[in-house]
Amino acid sequence: xxxxxxxxxxxxxxxxxxxxxxxxxxxxxxxxxxxxxxxxxxxxxxxxxxxxxxxxxxxxxxxxxxxxxxxxxxxxxxxxxxxxxxxxxxxxxxxxxxxxxxxxxxx
Amino acid sequence: xxxxxxxxxxxxxxxxxxxxxxxxxxxxxxxxxxxxxxxxxxxxxxxxxxxxxxxxxxxxxxxxxxxxxxxxxxxxxxxxxxxxxxxxxxxxxxxxxxxxxxxxxxxxxxxxxxxxxxxxxxxxxxxxxxxxxxxxxxxxxxxxxxxxxxxxxxxxxxxxxxxxxxxxxxxxxxxxxxxxxxxxxxxxxxxxxxxxxxxxxxxxxx
Lengths: 107, 206
Fold this sequence. Notes:
The complex is a heterodimer of chains A (107) and B (206).
Chain A: H1 3-6, H2 17-27, E1 33-36, H3 37-44, H4 48-60, E2 64-71, E3 74-81, H5 83-105
Antiparallel strand pairs in A: 1-3, 2-3
Chain B: H1 10-28, H2 32-35, H3 37-54, H4 66-92, E1 95-97, H5 98-124, H6 130-156, H7 159-178, H8 180-205
């Protein structure tokens, strides 16, 4: 398939199914909203360890903002996409669509 | 399920994006088993009891007093309200930020609306015959439910919620025009049944 050749140009941080799901889920939230770690874990059906690893990678890339706080005495962690993360997700989605359009346009 | 080593195709990744976006939106709109179905059951039970009390031609279909019918309606609504509150509290823990503020304000709008409705009905209903008094309570509470569903649709840009509000408004308006017996029948079947139907539909979709 011709599209396969262009795959390396896609953002490697997002171009992994698990991280793409994290980013796609957080992208649904409003600009000033953040989601509790445990809720994100349940929504995605990931283990805490797995999600933690992916969130750290996304945070290192500047795509995700992690906020640790307390609800009463219980520590709660919140995650949200940064402006940069939203832009990267937008660019990624556009790139994927372009690849598909090109592949579909030249059968 | 997750395989980071293999390079997925663009089709696959686009499907992942679409599936995850839809799943997240649905997940954030709450569990229909807690938010819709208990209300549907409460209305089917309560308004069926009222319908059997009123009848369509002024003669009751079953020996149920108005107080008993209202008792069934209020009790089942309280149970539904408690279950829905649990659903909303659970939902409010998911997000922090504007979404939470929006949900809290919306919750207060429900509370204020219900409180005002009770004040107005308590003040006016003693002046009315029993049947009209029952219609005042039922009609005004459904007016509030309809308007707040439509407003909720506007706040969260949720079209099904908005249209369900218009459905409630239409059935309520027609029922009030036709009288207490018809209002109870239409509400039990079209709105109680409607809430259960919407709940089952949303549940199966998610």
